[in-house]
Every structure is written in C-alpha cells, then in structure tokens.
C-alpha cells in the first residue's frame, strides 16, 4: 500500500491536505449523522436528514453512484431516500451528501431512526482489520415523538466530522452541536455500527450491531505516550463540552470512531444522535498552530460581545481561523441556514481569516446579541485554527478552543415600593411599580407556558447587590406572587406584613423553558409600613410562684407607643387592650387589662404588671404566657381596633438532673430576635430564696431551644466564685436572662436591647442512665408471593410490631426495671415519627390498626421505672405491593357490559391516576386525573369518539412509603369498539 497526499481544502472551510491510502475496490463513506425536526403542530411529522461525508479521492465514481440511502424510521417502515442535488464539496477529497425526507408517525412514542449506505471507504485501520470497504455505514438517531415537546429539533452538528492529525501530537474534535430549542446536551463515546443486511427488502436491514473487529483508535497498536509523555495514550470525551481528544496517535493511517450526543429537557432524556467521525493520521514535520485561551462570557441580551482571538504557528505558517456554533448560523460547509437557527444578528470573525493570516494571526469574534436569542443554556463557540504549510505535501493541522457565552435577561428596571395608607387602600399594604419589561425570548410553538414576573420580599434592607452574571433571586427572599410579564404594578396586602418593619422587594423575569431561564434580579426597593400599632418590648418574669413564699407569679409587660397615626386612623380617646394566652405558642388570647390613654406627654401608658387574679393566678413555675397588645382609636364615637402588636412570650426554662450535672434548656417566641446575643445564667445553691450568682454567659447563634449543662463551675467571677461539685443530695435553682433586639433598625431605635428573666426552676443531680435499646421487627410484605387479589376492596389495614429488650449491651447490664414501651410511627419515610401508643411492660408486641395503608415507619423506646426513656430502637419501614393493570379493549355502546375503560380487578394502594389519550395521529383527545380512572369513550369536551385504536399514558401514583410516589407509567393502546347505533 502507498499513500497519496491531496491538494488544498477548498471553499470557506479551509485549505488542507488529506493523506489517504489507495484502494483496490470502490469505497466512499467517511462519516455522518442523522438530524430531525418536527414540522407540524397538528401531527407527529418530522423532517429527517442524513448528512454523510464521502471520499471522492479514491472512491469518486462510487460516491457519485450513491444516489439513495435506506432510511428505517423505527416504526416498522423504511424508505429508499434520494440524495439532494447538487453535491457540495467541503474540500478536494470530500463531499457532503444530504439525504432528506418527511415522515409522519401514527402515534406518540420513542423511535430509533437509522440510515444505511452500503460501503465505508477502505483502509480504516480500526474496522475489520483495515478491510473497511466490506462494512456498511450505519448511524442511528433516537427521538421522543411526544406532542408535549412541541416543534422539537435534534441538535445540528456544525463542524464536519472529517479531520487530520499528526503522530505524537494531541488531536481533538468538537462537533459544534447547537440545539435550537435550548435543550441541554451531554456526550459519551460509542461504537460505530453496521447493518445486518444491505438489502432494502431484507427485514434485517434495519437491525444493527457493532462494526466488525472494532477497536478504539489508541488500541490498534501498542499505546504510546500522551503528547507531554507523562502517561499512556488516551481517548476521551468531555461529557459537557463535546471535545473528543486522542492524546496522542502513534501510527499513521485512517481511523473511525463514534460518539453520542444526548438531548435533555427538564432532567429527562428526550433524544440521542450518533456521530461517526473519520480522522487521518499522518507523519511529518508539521506542527499544529496554538490558540490562546479564550475566556467564557456572561452578558445581558442586547450587548455587543467581542472576544480577541490569537493563534500562533510554531513553524511560521499562515493560519486559517474559523468559528463554529449556532450564533454563526452556518452549516458544516459554511452555508447560511434558511430559516436561520436563531434570530439575527449573527456572529462573525473579523477580519476574514478563512484564507489565512500571517502568524501570529489576530482576529475578533463579534456578536450583537438581542432578546430574541435568550436561552437558559449557554452558547458554545468553537474556534478552529488550521495552518497552511509552506511546503507541500505536509498535511494542515488544526487546534480548537471552546468558550461559552451565557446570554442572560437584563434586570427589570425602576422598581419602587410605597406603603399604602388606609385612605387609599388598606392598613397593611405595599404598592410596587416598575417599568414595562420588553426583553423576551421567542416562545416555542405549542408551548402553554408564558413569560412571568416573579415578585420577592425580604425583611430588612441591608443586603448586597448580586454579581452581574447572577440570575434569579438572592438568598433570603420569599416569593410573594407571580404576575404576567406585561404587568407594571402590584399591591402586596399579605397578612404577614408587619407595621414598623422594613421590607426589601426585588423582581425577576422568568421565561418559558427550554429556551427560558430567569433574568438578572432587579435592584431592591425598600419601604417600611407606618407603625400604627404598639410594639412589645419586654415580657419578663418578676416572680415565680412558690419562690420566697409567693402565692402567684408576676410578669411585667412593656411596649412602645404607636407611631405614624394620621387623620384616617381615628382620634382619641385611645385604649390599649392587653391579652394573654397560655404557652409559648399559645393562640387562645383572653383579656387581661384595658388601659385608657390620651397619648399625651408625661402619661405613663406603656407598662403593665400582670399579677393574675385570685381565681386565676399566674403559675409561672409550670406555665408560660404569651401576650398581645391591641390598640383602639375612636371613630364616630366608638372605640375601634386599629392595629394589634405581634405577640411575645415569656421565657420557658426547664432543668433536668443528671449524673453530677444539671441540664438547662430555654426557649421563647418573640417578634424580636434573641440570636447573636449573650444570655446570662444564674444559679442558687440555697434553693429559691437565693442568693443567685451569675455562673455563665451563652452566646445564642441560632433560633430554637438553647441548652447549657451545669457541672458546678462558676465562669463569671465578678459577683463571687461559687464553683463546686453538684451534690446528688442537694437541689439547685436557676434563672436565665435572655437578651434580644429587633432586626429592623427603626424598631431597634425605639426599643433598644430587650432583657427578660425566666421563672426560677430547680433540679437535683441524679441517676439518669438510659434504658437499653429495644430491637424491633415488623411483619413486612412479600410482594412476589402475594396474589394480585390479596388486598381486593380492602380499605383498613393493620401492622404487627414485635420487639425484644436485651439483658446486656456493650458488655454492660441493661436496666431491667422497664415500666412501658413507647411506639412511634410516621406514615411517610423521612417524616418525623410521633408517639402513637404506649404498651405496659412486659408486653413485647403491638397491633397498629385502622390504617389507610400498610406503608409506614416505626421505632420503639423503653421507659424505666424512673421515667427515663431510651433512645430510639432500630427504625423499620414497611412498603406496599402496588398493583394496577389496564385492559386492551372496551365497548362503550350502552349495553351495560364493558362500557367504561377502568382498571382490571383489584388495583391496590392507588392514590390517583393521571390519564391521557391520543388518537392515531398523535392528537390528545381525552385527559383526566383523580383517584379512579373511568373513561366512557368520549373526548374531554364530551364528544363521542369513533371506534378504533387509541394510545394512552397512565401515571399511577401509589400510596406507598414515599410521599407522592412511587409513580408507575403505563403506556399502551386500547381498542375502542362501538357500533353505528352507539355513535348516534
């Protein structure tokens, strides 16, 4: 065999020389792929294109004779498709041949479309030992023909799959894949395929298997080293960018490989393209040019994007620089797409470097973007630099640099926020206004989604502005509402708005997927509602009942006067009404006091000492109290409620004795924040009478219950050192002083730092050793052994639990003095388990009855005679045995037999069924959702559907262990039979 070196590559692509071996038989196909696009909104009609690349250097006549290609459509049909004329060249050795047809699928489904051409070109080293002309060319593309995907297209591949490489140098190829729908793309290596037969009439012609004696290119000979020599040769694909790299070839020759491009939408794989690529490896002195790194770009739509491109050639050769990607709107052979891939304007590289520039070659990528080009996925731009060797026959070599352009929606402009007064619309409302948003991407045909404006709110206005490239809302904001994109005003009248609090608002534009995403967030608009309500500023326990002989507890409540009153709020006389509820989270408020006031200067009207009453004393030792203050004005001679304060509770304190220690925990429920503040702990070694010494300071970092373990140390020496071991024979008493402040600056300015005392709580150290853990078992279901009718018509279920209590654990004896066992249960896995039953010892079983499902999780704890509960046993969960099946025929003819399409006998544990029916043309004719499927053969609008075959998809949600699942998707067809009488 001898090699022949070709001349220059022609046209806009580049000038290059390919070295290919001579062949003794006709050979022609180098590479190719299949792409599709749906072209009808009313039917599943697709334009299907097989793009192939032919060797005309050694197989010109055979390539000319390949006037048809066999298409297999994946639905049992096939067609000999003629080649489009005229044939176009991409260089002097290769033509691009296109075979295109239209095909309509009878119903929704997943279809694998294949294209077959009889012979590959010869002497491909890693196929059939080099005798590749005896192997046919076969590629496949898989599509999801589903109406909800709209006019979906597969990606188009804009960089030709024919390359050259040099021994010892790293070679890379990028397909420059562009998805016009904005779907996500992923890449993986595949094996080239061939058909079982080359005859159209042969039923095996549409079946494929790996090409004969295939090896990855780097495995054809003993692998050499990578270009930098640090490891063995590699062949990889970047799953995100699509860069396929062989680092590095060892021997000259012709090689083929394949990779798959996956198309994803909303986390679902909706299609795959297989690209078959050919690379010719040569030996020689030429070295590939080098491209400077190109940074990724993030820019708002409407921006002119420019990126400098610089390439140098180590041999001093001239360099061709070309760009590939959707924004260029150019096919693999550099012809403009019509219709265009995306709205113009299109990207360019200037000056034109398609015929070569002296090294170092410098050009500029330019793209004037617009809102019609917005999409969630970034645009991938591939820059290819190819040298033009000064002396022939050295083969031109190429290098690639890829960079991404993330085009984002500009921020909404001129957002303002204004408190709405009672005279103009309400006492708790904020009105937002902003400029009309006009930057919108195109909406995919058939999409039901529309652009929206998202409105967010956050307490406080001290937050930084986002990074210019950050889209969507900032952390800490809560979605208030969603409005149409054309809206320019909104009134927030949420019941959660609080007077005297500053609120930050931001808005974000959201576009329909898959071409959508979210815009940059707007600047914040900050506003405070006028403080027409009093603000509670203290709820402190002055006295604990039982301490120092006190018969009842005493709590002092303080507040600030209301501000921002205007004529519309009513006038004096005014009145405060203090209300009280039991419990830190109490909501059953009862009147405590009514305090008349004129709000005049010098009037003391912002404090009340609550002593309870003789019949209802405050038992602060065992109860917690929560207060609310309502403010009344006089309107038309009547006291009228204007506004109420946010409730605030007293401090709840608990003390639990342990071995040589006492654990304290406390909590509050207040409109002010107690986080980030030092709480003081006081202890008395002489009971409730005191004296109380401060022993510690706890800096509270997070909301919720606060804990402190006292082992006897006194960490605050300023009032005397009372350190000493805690005795099991003594009782110790404690008070805690919490420290808090309002987050809102204006509120804090009125109230300052807020300090509250807890009641006094006492405890003694003691033996708190926990019982050992029980071992739990549950009567689980064996779904494989159950008959489908096992739970037929059953609506109430029971689970039997059995457990054991160990004698020893970890080499130590377990406390045998067990009084009872607590059973905890959660209906769904992941939910918090709650106490559902208690069983007295020594019983070790429990039957959990009257359940709506057998699904659920359990654990058991043991409780000692001292009242100490063990930790949870092992958790055991039980799941269902789902059962649901559908018939394939029904006869809605009114004879009372099989008139309704329903599930077959005994569906089990079904919560709901989503059901969609399509006719044979793929149009949706019926849809329902509910706990029971019952279709009477009519359309969603009530019309009688004719007899025939219909396709359905049923999404069955079972009431299993996982909330909202599991989900079973049933797809199939049903024959609807009715006579002519039934149609009338």
UniProtKB/TrEMBL annotation:
It comes from the Bacteria. Keywords: Signal. Pfam families: CHU_C. Residues 1-26 form the signal peptide. This is Gliding motility-associated C-terminal domain-containing protein. The lineage of its organism: Bacteria, Pseudomonadati, Bacteroidota, Cytophagia, Cytophagales.
């Amino acid at each position: 065999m001898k090699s022949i070196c070709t001349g220059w590559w022609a046209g806009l692509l580049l000038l290059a020389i390919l070295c290919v071996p001579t062949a003794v038989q006709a050979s022609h196909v180098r590479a190719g792929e299949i792409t599709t696009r749906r072209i009808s909104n009313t039917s599943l009609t697709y334009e299907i294109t097989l793009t192939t690349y032919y060797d005309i250097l050694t197989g010109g006549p055979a390539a000319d004779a390949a006037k048809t290609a066999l298409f297999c459509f994946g639905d049992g049909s096939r067609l000999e498709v003629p080649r489009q004329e005229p044939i176009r060249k991409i260089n002097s050795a290769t033509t691009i041949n296109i075979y295109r047809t239209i095909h309509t699928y009878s119903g929704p489904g997943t279809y694998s479309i294949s294209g077959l051409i009889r012979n590959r070109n010869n002497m491909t080293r890693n196929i059939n030992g080099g005798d590749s002309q005896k192997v046919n060319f076969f590629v496949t593309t898989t599509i999801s023909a589903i109406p909800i995907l709209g006019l979906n297209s597969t990606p188009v591949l804009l960089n030709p799959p024919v390359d050259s490489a040099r021994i010892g140098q790293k070679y890379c190829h990028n397909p420059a894949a562009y998805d016009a729908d904005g779907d996500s793309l992923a890449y993986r290596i595949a094996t080239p395929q061939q058909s079982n037969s080359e005859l159209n009439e042969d039923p095996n012609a549409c079946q494929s298997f790996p090409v004969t004696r295939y090896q990855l290119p780097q495995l054809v000979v003993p692998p050499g080293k990578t270009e930098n020599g640090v490891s063995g040769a590699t062949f990889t694909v970047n799953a995100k960018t699509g860069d396929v790299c062989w680092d590095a070839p060892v021997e000259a020759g012709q090689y083929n490989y394949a990779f798959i491009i996956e198309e994803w939408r909303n986390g679902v794989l909706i299609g795959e393209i297989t690209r078959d690529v050919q690379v010719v490896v040569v030996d020689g002195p030429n070295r590939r040019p080098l491209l400077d790194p190109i940074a990724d770009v993030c820019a708002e739509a409407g921006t002119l994007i420019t990126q400098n491109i610089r390439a140098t050639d180590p041999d001093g050769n001239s360099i061709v620089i070309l760009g590939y990607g959707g924004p260029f709107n150019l096919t693999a052979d550099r012809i403009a797409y019509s219709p265009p891939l995306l709205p113009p304007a299109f990207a360019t590289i200037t000056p034109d470097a398609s015929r070569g520039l002296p090294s170092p070659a410098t050009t500029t990528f330019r793209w004037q973007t617009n809102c019609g080009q917005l999409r969630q996925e970034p645009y991938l731009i591939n820059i290819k630099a190819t040298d033009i060797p000064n002396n022939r026959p050295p083969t031109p070599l190429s290098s690639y640099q890829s960079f991404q352009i993330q085009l984002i929606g500009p921020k909404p402009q001129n957002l303002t926020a204004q408190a709405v007064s009672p005279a103009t619309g309400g006492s708790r409302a904020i009105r937002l206004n902003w400029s009309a948003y006009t930057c919108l991407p195109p909406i995919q045909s058939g999409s039901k989604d529309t652009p929206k404006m998202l409105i967010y709110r956050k307490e406080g206005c001290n937050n930084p502005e986002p990074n210019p490239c950050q889209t969507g809302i900032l952390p800490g904001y809560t979605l208030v509402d969603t409005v149409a994109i054309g809206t320019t005003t909104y009134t927030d009248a949420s019941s959660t708005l609080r007077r005297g609090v500053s609120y930050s608002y931001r808005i974000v534009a959201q576009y329909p997927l898959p071409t959508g995403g979210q815009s940059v967030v707007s600047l914040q608009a900050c506003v405070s509602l006028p403080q027409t309500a009093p603000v509670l500023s203290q709820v402190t326990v002055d006295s604990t009942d039982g301490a120092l002989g006190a018969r009842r507890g005493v709590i002092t409540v303080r507040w600030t006067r209301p501000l921002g009153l205007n004529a519309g709020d009513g006038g004096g006389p005014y009145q405060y009404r203090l209300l009280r509820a039991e419990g830190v989270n109490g909501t059953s408020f009862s009147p405590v006091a009514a305090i008349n006031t004129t709000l005049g200067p010098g009037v003391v009207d912002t404090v009340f000492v609550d002593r309870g009453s003789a019949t209802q004393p405050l038992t602060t030792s065992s109860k917690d109290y929560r207060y609310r203050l309502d403010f009344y004005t006089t309107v038309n001679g009547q006291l009228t409620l204007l506004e109420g304060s946010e409730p605030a509770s007293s401090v709840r304190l608990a003390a639990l004795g342990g071995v040589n220690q006492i654990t304290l925990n406390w909590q509050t429920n207040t409109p002010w924040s107690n986080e980030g503040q030092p709480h003081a702990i006081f202890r008395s070694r002489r009971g409730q009478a005191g004296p109380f010494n401060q022993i510690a300071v706890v800096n509270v970092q997070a909301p919720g219950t606060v804990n402190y373990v006292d082992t006897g140390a006194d960490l605050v020496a300023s009032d005397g050192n009372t350190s000493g071991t805690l005795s099991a024979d003594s009782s110790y008493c404690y008070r805690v002083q919490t420290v808090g402040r309002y987050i809102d600056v204006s509120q804090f300015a009125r109230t300052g730092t807020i300090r509250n005392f807890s009641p006094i709580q006492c405890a003694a150290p003691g033996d708190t050793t926990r019982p050992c853990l029980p071992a739990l078992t549950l009567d689980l279901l064996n779904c494989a052994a159950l008959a489908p009718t096992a739970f037929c018509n059953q609506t109430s279920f029971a689970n039997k639990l059995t457990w054991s209590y160990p004698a020893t654990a970890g080499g130590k004896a377990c406390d045998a003095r067990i009084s009872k066992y607590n059973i905890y249960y959660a209906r769904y896995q992941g939910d918090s388990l709650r106490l559902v039953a208690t069983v007295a010892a020594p019983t070790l079983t429990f039957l959990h009855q009257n359940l709506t499902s057998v699904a659920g999780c359990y654990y058991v704890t043991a409780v000692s005679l001292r009242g100490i509960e063990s930790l949870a046993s092992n958790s055991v969960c039980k799941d269902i045995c789902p059962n649901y099946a559908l018939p394939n025929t029904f006869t809605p003819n009114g004879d009372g037999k099989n008139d309704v399409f329903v599930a077959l006998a005994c569906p089990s544990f079904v919560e709901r069924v989503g059901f969609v029916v399509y006719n044979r043309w793929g149009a949706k004719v019926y849809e329902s959702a509910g706990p029971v499927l019952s279709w009477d053969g009519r359309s969603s609008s009530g019309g009688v559907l004719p007899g025939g075959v219909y396709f359905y998809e049923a999404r069955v949600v079972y009431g299993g262990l996982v909330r909202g699942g599991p989900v079973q998707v049933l797809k199939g067809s049903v024959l609807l039979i009715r006579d002519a009488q039934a149609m009338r």
